[in-house]
């Protein structure tokens, strides 16, 4: 499923983000930047040790990365040239600024891509696994944030959501059907 946004395309597919050939893929990381389970574990396994080495260098420089932030490293052995490590919020019931923090994680990721002049980026569903953000609401926030960013950045030609399971895919398809282009 896809929609034209400005001069680019917003697309939703089911699959494994580690296999995408976009310029960058986004990792749902944690504040340590030193790896974890879920999509984070899969990206480090597939991309090899070079990614972790750069993450360690960044962590040594900046310390922990607050939720809502994103940093960029090499893609190591991945087809994607870069990995953008974004930290989403842990869901604590919705009164701790989780929605705004989630939108920020998407925006900051796209800023890192634009700073490098990249044209295509793939996202997983940030925060809806181990961090327990309800996926129906997260999908609307994610797509809205990406749409708003794409409208102001003509260089971004393709932003793809690569979703692992059918329920997450369906939540994003429904949200894409509802957002205004
Ligand atoms: N491709 C695409 N999506 C995937 C893949 C994959 N290969 N593997 C899992 N997913 P999660 P979070 C989906 O838990 O909620 C880590 O330990 C998964 O089905 O990976 O942001 C970090 O280090 C779900 O829909 O990320 C943090 O500590 C989505 O990716 C913490 O988990 C996100 O699930 C971050 O939690």
How would you describe the overall organization of this protein?
- The chain has 181 residues and is an alpha/beta fold.
- Helix content is 40%, strand content 21%.
- A hairpin with a 2-residue loop joins strand 1 and strand 2.
- The model has no long low-confidence stretch (mean pLDDT 97).
- The site of ligand AR6 has 25 residues, from strand 3 and helix 1.
Which bin fits the share of residues in helices? 25-40%
Molecular shape: globular
Number of strands: 7
Radius of gyration: 15 Å
What is the count of helical runs?
A: 5
As residue ranges, the low-confidence spans are: none
Largest sheet geometry: 7 strands, mixed
Strand order of the largest sheet: 1-2-7-6-3-5-4
SSE series: EEEHHEEHEHEH
> How big a fraction of the residues is strand?
15-25%
Separation, N- and C-terminal Cα atoms:
14 Å
**Ligand identities:** ligand AR6
Content-based structural category: alpha/beta
Give the integer mean of the pLDDT values: 97
Can you summarize this structure?
This protein has 181 residues and is α/β, with parallel strands linked by helices. It has helices spanning 38-47, 49-62, 98-115, 135-151, 166-178, and strands at residues 2-5, 8-14, 24-29, 70-74, 82-87, 120-123, 158-163. Helix content is 40%, strand content 21%.
Task: Describe the secondary-structure layout.
Blueprint: E1 2-5, E2 8-14, E3 24-29, H1 38-47, H2 49-62, E4 70-74, E5 82-87, H3 98-115, E6 120-123, H4 135-151, E7 158-163, H5 166-178
Parallel strand pairs: 2-7, 3-5, 3-6, 6-7
Antiparallel strand pairs: 1-2, 4-5
Helix pairs in contact: 3-4, 4-5
This protein binds ligand AR6.
Residues 16-18, 28-30, 36-40, 42, 88, 124-131, 162, 164-165, 168 line the site of ligand AR6.
């Amino acid at each position: 499923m896809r929609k034209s946004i400005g001069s680019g395309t917003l697309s939703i597919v089911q699959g494994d983000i580690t296999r995408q050939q976009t310029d960058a893929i986004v990792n749902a990381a944690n504040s340590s930047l030193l790896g974890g389970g879920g999509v984070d574990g899969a990206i480090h396994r597939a991309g090899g040790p070079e990614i972790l080495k750069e993450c360690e260098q960044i962590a040594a420089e900046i310390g922990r990365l607050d939720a809502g932030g994103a940093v960029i490293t090499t893609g190591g052995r991945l087809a994607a040239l870069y990995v953008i490590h974004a930290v989403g919020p842990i869901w604590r019931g919705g009164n701790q600024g989780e929605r705004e923090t989630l939108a920020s994680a998407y925006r900051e990721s796209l800023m890192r891509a634009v700073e490098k002049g990249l044209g295509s980026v793939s996202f997983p569903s940030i925060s809806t696994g181990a961090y327990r953000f309800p996926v129906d609401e997260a999908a609307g926030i994610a797509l809205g944030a990406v749409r708003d960013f794409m409208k102001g950045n003509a260089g971004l030609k393709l932003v793809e959501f690569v979703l692992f399971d059918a329920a997450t895919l369906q939540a994003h398809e429904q949200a894409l059907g509802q957002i205004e282009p």
